[in-house]
Amino acid sequence: MYDFIHIDEKWFYLTQKSQRVYLANNEPFPHRKGKSRTKIPKFMFMAAVARPRWGQDWQCEWDEKLGIFSFTDAVAARRTSKNRVQGTIETKPIKSVNQIATRAMLINYLIPAIKEKWPPHEGEKVIYIIQDNAKAHILQNDQEWQQHYKQDGFTLILTQQPANSPDCNIFDLEFFRSIQSLMHKKMPKTVEDLSGDVTEAYNELHAKTLSNVWMSLQYVGNEILKHKGDNNYQLPHNKKKILEDEGNLPEQVKAPRWAVNECKQLVDEWRANQ
């Protein structure tokens, strides 16, 4: 899985409807203002991660965080108000996150990030970019993408995760929830703070957390094999922390041979009936 990149999008809200805080004696309660509970400002972000790489003594050589990018525009204020003067640059969400916006994000932000941050390698490097089946995503045969997917020794292949299988995505498993938890601790007050705090939370999240999610993804793959492709299973809990402390945490999870054989037989039967 070291040649895989997972991407996904998520809404991040400026604040929660209710939030628990711990205050010292005589500390003033943090005041929040909003027009409506249903109109909380929000931005959509696209994040991209790969599997962290570890060296000797479990030292992180690369945390595999390629970046988190917001679907926003910098717009000058049209008129003066009590909050800002005319011409002040404001951060606004784009009108629609569609295939045009997604394609531009991949070409203008993700590809340069891969070329800049990916570890040195020899020869051609083939990287698979895993995404869900949202309508806003483009496919590998997209005409404009075909002009950019090969650059500087990299070949980037867009692939889709299985339908109705959110557990096959790193972000849906746990990663986005961890970022959101860290972001809300910073309690941003403006939309500009929101964009910066989400980026800070993404960068602050420990590489071990990301590495554990990649391990969970492998265990999820085993559960899918055991249930012959069905998503009617419980998320496995494999005591990764205990195994790590004992020095027994595997780098690669082995699939049960009986599950693999049963799935191969099922696929062969399906092909024979076509």
Automatic annotation (TrEMBL):
Task: Please give the InterPro entries that the UniProt record associates with this protein.
Answer: RNaseH_sf
A molecular function GO annotation:
nucleic acid binding
Q: Which PANTHER family match?
A: OS01G0541250 PROTEIN, PTHR47169:SF3
Q: What is this protein called?
A: Transposase
Organism whose genome encodes this protein: Spinacia oleracea (Spinach)
